[in-house]
């Protein structure tokens, strides 16, 4: 064995790739040094015991304890290290050392030490090899008054080889140190030396208990061991010499098992960390394959560089163990192929810990700041040129009314904020997970893991473990030592490090000092320095990740169903999680950022239970076959301009972005969360489900967990302000029992709310901008194009919805409504033919009646609608379209009494097929209104109605327009007074004789001005407000200034599909002024094109402008004074107001503009801000209290004017007849159930 060890090389490969470049850092080749000394030692076993120093214990080792320790082991005649493990030694160590200590025990120990040197003082090298056949590192903690210690296995090898010539050592420690002298750059300078060290540790399969309390005590022990070394002596024993040290550390193992113990946090001031191990029974077992840990430490006269601790592995498997319950595999991380790397190059899971120096800024940063300030000094306004501070929120301000909308930053802003925060953090952790899978089998497991991590691991605080050793120890930080905690930290930068020959900058250096506070500074928005460090920051990057959640499945009664569960799967691509605590030195301030390039959610409400896996496998990230897609990236052609907006813009927005600002006010004990979320280019597949089986209900129920109490911690009051923004998103709904596909798109959707714990007020606001509802009858295709296969039936410009709830007061009095809903919008356009409008009405009935859960029963086939037998099984598209030229032929029976003169009926036969250019004699005589031509055009055949009918109309258009102008000039009532309000015009009726103007005096004498003659106006009057003596309502529903324009088209939207659609721009000779409201969105003009059979030259519009509605319900309790009579008590109140109502005639064959509008004249001018229709209803309880409620109805209607064109009247009749025929009647559930039973019985017979 010794011969084998002597033949091994003493030096590893050169470390040039790990050391800084330059002449001074070049290592010494091992071949150039000659051997000087060689030492080899073989031991059967060894033990190293280091006593811990709890407060109150005497420092050092008492003499009686040392004598007792060695006497205990001298009494043993047999060798103590003969077994494969060291469990049998624990009772003997209990007797030998009844104090808290850390013990290292090893067997089959081999030590080899060699020294090499060069000629003169060129350099020197030391090599040490230490091998252990069996090794154990143990912490033995003796609590006060305990009879037995508590053990923590810091390092153990369960499969140790023990003794044997062929046995492989479980630990191999190699330490190589080289020294070389650096040539002097100046004769007066002291000599300097470069010391490079390489420490490598090769471990066999091992396991370790990771406990924060044990690591804290171990760090305090190391600190005590290094504190007496006040000065660096140097290996050459030349105190004046400057020594620069560089140490490279490597630890490798083929397999490692880390058992993470969760601490029990105790935030009480009288907590004693030496009282015993305060850990939970639950633990997280992490199994790592191909473990490799490496780090590089440097110390010297140069500025301290950040210390990096890097841990990599090829596979990671996590198992959560909870007492006697079965172990749950909850985590799996594995390597993946690099898609951009050459060949089969893998991306490994990696964890990098960066420890930055504790100084606030380096001299190089000071120089950069100085250069920037010099450049700004020449500008007139330096404040305008200053760049904004990086933030996870968007720097582009978006205002809505008087409130600023908070939006997450774009990828560039997020990346700048994260990189800057990582660089200015005392400690940062970066995790790279190429392929990750998290499995949560139940809510109970999730609640346990949540409390262990969030309330135990993250709330734990280190204790004061160091005894009072004087002022030297009081300045140290024992809890979390920095990268230079084991050497001196009193090094100060000299200016010669960056300027060797100039001392002219001494007078100006204090202007750039970050630590000085006495120098007058210009006013800044924040008192802190921009170079102040954050405490801890974390960045987790997941290339591909999946989260699988198994939740409870509840029935309609809310009880859990047996033998089944709900399942949710979330897939993430290129996801990042970033968090920082004590941001830039501000206590209580932190940020959390979540981003994902792509995300998809799959859900199934009811899944049969299956056997849970004992070990997680690497997922393939294909959509689960047994789950349905719920939220996924929008397909190409689904949104209006979501894909087009990303072209030519470089890096587009991520699909998911979330930024959270966390601020804790310790004085008020209030914790505020500002949460903003942005979802871009996502589609939600809506599916009807039972109340407790929807994906959001199951997810919220799964996440609704309780926090375990923490000793010495008072939970703060939580205030959550939520801003949710959806850009270019859609909702896809495909009914199961209705032949239609629905797509709802929203270019911008904003949800804002405030959630305050233990308060009674909740506010929720929705803002919907540029949204639309599309229908399609192509149910067989999986993928459809928005512009080719869908018909836009509803177009919403801007809609705001505010919901406010209040739990009420403890006194029982209402100071505000318990529930209040307010809605307002700009304008809503409804574009529909008769069939699309009927389909929309059927869809509303289907959704309200939960048609997917309760399939509607089919009514009897023949149904009488409007006096006609109509087959409801036929779709509205199958009904024949009715052009205006054909209406006289089709509706002659309905208008016999009013419009037809039977004595003048003509019985001439129809024209032959070739006589299309001649006029056909009408079979009826149509009654004409005064002013219309007697020789009206006769109706044409259906084949030529759309061509020759329009041509004849165009020929007579000029003559009819002239007559209309003459009629309007002669009729004073027809003046358009929409733009004028005529109050009074005295003296206009008597013109002067001589033609000269005459001044009419209304009052002889002087005019007397009386103060207060006219009462002071009270301001704007809210017509929806209830009288002052009315009680406070319980619920209130308010719709304010909602405008609706319904465009009624001829033809049909659905039915036989043609190769192309009719463009809306060539709809006919007459335009619609109501479409001018959409001129600010020219990109949405294609929405009016409709289906292939829509006739744009046949159009009527119904416009309701500024519609307001309010519904209030009042409490039913009667509160009256004793002896007073009970009057009428209001129960509910409704107010419906329409400011303007118009029906416009846009038929190409009609010369009338307005079909119905407000009547105005010189005697009856229109009043400003008047309402055309006002309906008020008041529901009251009777005075005697007997009987049902009574209703008082008040209707106010301003005068109307009708200009009825015959074609327009026939079109309205045909439209609503087809609409009524296409709407499925509502059948009660009992009738439907009885019909299904009768149908099943008939089938059985």
TrEMBL record:
Q: Where is the composition biased (Polar residues)?
A: 1080-1089
Enumerate composition-biased segments (Low complexity): 1065-1078
A molecular function (GO) held by this record is: phosphatidylinositol-3-phosphate binding
Which membrane topology describes this protein?
A: Peripheral membrane protein
Q: Which reactions is this enzyme annotated as catalysing?
A: a 1,2-diacyl-sn-glycero-3-phospho-L-serine(in) = a 1,2-diacyl-sn-glycero-3-phospho-L-serine(out); a 1,2-diacyl-sn-glycero-3-phosphoethanolamine(in) = a 1,2-diacyl-sn-glycero-3-phosphoethanolamine(out)
Some GO term, biological process aspect, for this entry: which one?
autophagosome assembly
The record's subcellular locations are:
Endoplasmic reticulum membrane; Preautophagosomal structure membrane
Please give the InterPro entries that the UniProt record associates with this protein: ATG2
Q: Which domain of life is it from?
A: Eukaryota
> Which keywords, in A-to-Z order, does the entry hold?
Endoplasmic reticulum, Lipid transport, Membrane, Transport
Disordered: annotated span: 1-31, 378-399, 508-533, 632-653, 929-977, 1060-1092
Q: Where does this protein have compositionally biased stretches of type Acidic residues?
A: 955-977
Q: Name one GO cellular component term.
A: phagophore assembly site membrane
Q: Which family does it belong to?
A: Belongs to the ATG2 family.
Which PANTHER family does this UniProt record tie to the protein? AUTOPHAGY-RELATED 2, ISOFORM A, AUTOPHAGY-RELATED PROTEIN 2 HOMOLOG A
Q: What is the name of this protein? A: Autophagy related 2A
Organism the protein comes from? Sarcophilus harrisii
């Amino acid at each position: 064995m010794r011969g084998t060890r002597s033949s091994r090389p003493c030096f590893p490969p050169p470390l040039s790739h790990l050391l800084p470049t330059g002449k001074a850092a070049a290592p010494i080749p091992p071949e150039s040094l000659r051997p000087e000394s060689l030492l080899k030692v073989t031991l059967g076993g060894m033990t190293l015991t280091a006593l811990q120093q709890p407060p109150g214990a005497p420092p050092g080792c008492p003499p009686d304890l040392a004598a007792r320790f060695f006497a205990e082991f001298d009494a043993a005649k047999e060798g103590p290290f003969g077994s494969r493990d060291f469990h049998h030694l624990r009772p003997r160590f209990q007797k030998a050392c009844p104090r808290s200590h850390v013990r290292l025990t090893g067997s089959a120990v081999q030590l080899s030490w060699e020294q090499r040197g060069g000629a003169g003082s060129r350099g020197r090298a030391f090599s040490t090899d230490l091998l252990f056949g069996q090794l154990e590192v143990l912490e033995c903690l003796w609590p006060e008054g305990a009879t037995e210690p508590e053990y923590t296995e810091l390092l153990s090898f369960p499969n140790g080889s023990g003794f044997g010539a062929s046995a492989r050592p479980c630990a191999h420690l190699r330490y190589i140190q080289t020294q070389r002298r650096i040539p002097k750059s100046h004769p007066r300078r002291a000599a300097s030396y470069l010391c490079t060290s390489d420490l490598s540790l090769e471990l066999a399969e091992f396991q370790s208990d990771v406990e924060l309390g044990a690591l804290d005590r171990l760090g305090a022990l190391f600190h005590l061991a290094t504190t007496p070394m006040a000065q660096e002596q140097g290996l050459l024993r030349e105190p004046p010499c400057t020594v620069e040290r560089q140490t490279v550390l490597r630890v490798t193992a083929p397999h490692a098992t880390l058992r993470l113990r969760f601490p029990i946090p105790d935030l009480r001031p009288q907590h004693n960390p030496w009282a015993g191990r305060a850990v939970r029974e639950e633990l997280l077992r992490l199994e790592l394959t191909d473990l490799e840990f490496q780090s590089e430490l440097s110390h010297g006269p140069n500025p301290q560089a950040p210390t990096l601790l890097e841990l990599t592995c090829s596979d990671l498997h996590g198992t959560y163990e909870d007492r006697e319950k079965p172990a749950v595999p909850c985590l799996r991380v594995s390597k993946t192929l690099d898609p951009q790397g050459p060949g089969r190059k893998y991306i490994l899971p990696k964890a990098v810990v960066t420890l930055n120096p504790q100084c606030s800024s380096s001299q190089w940063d000071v120089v950069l700041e100085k250069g920037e300030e010099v450049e700004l000094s020449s500008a007139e306004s330096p404040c305008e040129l200053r760049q904004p501070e990086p933030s996870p929120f968007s720097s582009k301000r978006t205002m809505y009314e008087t409130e600023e909308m908070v939006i997450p930053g774009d990828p560039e802003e997020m990346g700048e904020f994260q990189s800057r925060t990582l660089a200015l953090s005392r400690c940062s952790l970066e995790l790279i997970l190429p392929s990750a899978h998290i499995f949560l089998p139940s809510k109970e497991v999730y609640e346990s893991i949540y409390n262990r991590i969030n309330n135990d691991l993250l709330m734990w605080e280190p204790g004061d473990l160091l005894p009072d050793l004087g002022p030297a120890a009081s300045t140290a930080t024992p809890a979390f030592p920095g990268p230079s905690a084991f050497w001196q930290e009193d090094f100060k930068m000299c200016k010669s490090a960056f300027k060797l020959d100039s001392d002219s900058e001494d007078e100006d250096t204090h202007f750039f000092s970050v630590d000085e506070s006495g120098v007058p500074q210009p006013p800044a928005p924040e008192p802190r320095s921009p170079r102040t460090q954050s405490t801890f920051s974390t960045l987790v990057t997941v290339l591909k990740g999946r989260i699988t959640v198994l939740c409870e499945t509840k029935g309609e009664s809310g009880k859990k169903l047996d033998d089944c569960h709900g399942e949710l799967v979330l897939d993430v691509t290129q996801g990042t999680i970033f968090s920082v605590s004590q941001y830039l030195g501000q206590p209580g301030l932190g940020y959390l950022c979540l981003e994902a390039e792509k995300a998809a959610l799959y859900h199934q409400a009811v899944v049969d239970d299956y056997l849970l896996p004992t070990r997680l496998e690497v997922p393939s990230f294909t959509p689960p076959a047994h789950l349905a897609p719920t939220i996924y990236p929008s397909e190409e052609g689904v949104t209006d301009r979501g894909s087009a907006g990303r072209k030519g813009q470089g890096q587009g927005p991520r699909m998911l972005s979330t930024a959270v600002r966390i601020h804790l006010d310790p004085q008020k004990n209030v914790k505020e969360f500002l949460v903003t979320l942005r979802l871009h280019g996502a589609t939600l597949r809506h599916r009807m489900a039972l109340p407790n089986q929807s994906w959001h209900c199951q997810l919220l129920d799964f996440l609704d967990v309780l926090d375990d109490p923490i000793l010495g911690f008072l939970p703060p009051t939580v205030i959550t302000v939520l801003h949710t923004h959806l850009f270019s998103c859609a909702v896809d709904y495909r009914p199961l029992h209705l032949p239609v596909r629905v797509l709802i798109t929203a270019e911008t959707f904003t949800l804002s709310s405030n959630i305050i714990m233990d308060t009674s007020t909740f506010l929720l606001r929705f803002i919907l901008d540029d949204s639309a509802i599309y229908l399609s009858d192509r149910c067989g295709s999986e993928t459809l194009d928005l512009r080719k296969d869908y018909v836009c039936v509803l177009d919403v410009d801007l809609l705001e919805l505010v919901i406010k709830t209040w739990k009420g007061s403890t006194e029982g009095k209402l100071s505000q409504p318990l529930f209040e809903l307010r809605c307002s919008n700009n304008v809503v356009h409804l574009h529909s033919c008769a069939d699309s409008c009927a389909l929309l009405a059927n869809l509303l009935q289907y959704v309200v009646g939960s048609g997917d859960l309760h399939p509607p029963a089919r009514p009897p086939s023949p149904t009488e609608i409007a006096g006609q037998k109509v087959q409801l099984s036929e779709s509205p598209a199958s009904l024949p379209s009715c052009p205006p030229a054909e209406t006289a032929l089709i509706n002659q029976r309905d208008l016999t009494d009013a419009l037809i003169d039977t004595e003048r009926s003509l019985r001439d036969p129809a024209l032959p097929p070739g006589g299309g250019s001649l006029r056909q004699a009408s079979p009826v005589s149509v009654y004409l209104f005064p002013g219309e031509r007697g020789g009206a055009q006769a109706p044409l055949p259906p084949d030529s109605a759309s061509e020759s009918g329009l041509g004849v109309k165009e020929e007579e258009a000029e003559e009819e327009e002239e007559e209309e102008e003459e009629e309007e000039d002669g009729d004073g009532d027809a003046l358009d007074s929409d733009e004028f309000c005529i109050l009074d015009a005295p003296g206009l009726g008597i013109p002067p004789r001589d033609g000269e103007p005459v001044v009419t005096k209304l009052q002889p004498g002087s005019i007397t001005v009386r103060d207060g003659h006219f009462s002071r106006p009270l301001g704007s009057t809210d017509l929806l407000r209830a009288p002052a003596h009315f009680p406070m309502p319980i619920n209130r529903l308010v719709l304010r200034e909602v405008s609706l324009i319904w465009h009624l088209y001829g033809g049909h939207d659905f039915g036989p599909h043609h190769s192309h659609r009719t463009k809306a721009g060539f709809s006919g000779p007459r335009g619609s002024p109501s479409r001018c409201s959409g001129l600010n969105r020219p990109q949405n003009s294609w929405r009016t094109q409709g289906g292939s059979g829509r006739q744009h030259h046949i159009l009527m519009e119904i416009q309701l402008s500024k519609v307001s509605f309010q519904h209030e319900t009042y409490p039913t309790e009667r509160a009256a004074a004793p002896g007073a009579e009970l009057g009428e008590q209001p129960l509910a109140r409704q107010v419906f107001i329409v400011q303007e109502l118009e029906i416009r005639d846009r038929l190409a064959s009609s010369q009338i503009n307005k079909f119905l509008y407000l009547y105005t004249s010189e005697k009856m001018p229109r009043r400003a801000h008047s309402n055309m229709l006002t309906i008020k209803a008041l529901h009251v309880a009777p005075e005697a209290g007997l009987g049902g409620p009574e209703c008082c109805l008040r209707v106010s209607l301003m005068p109307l004017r009708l200009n009825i064109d015959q074609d327009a009247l026939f079109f309205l009749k045909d439209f609503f007849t087809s609409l009524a025929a296409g709407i499925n009647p509502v059948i009660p559930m009992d009738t439907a159930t009885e019909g299904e039973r009768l149908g099943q019985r008939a089938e059985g017979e």
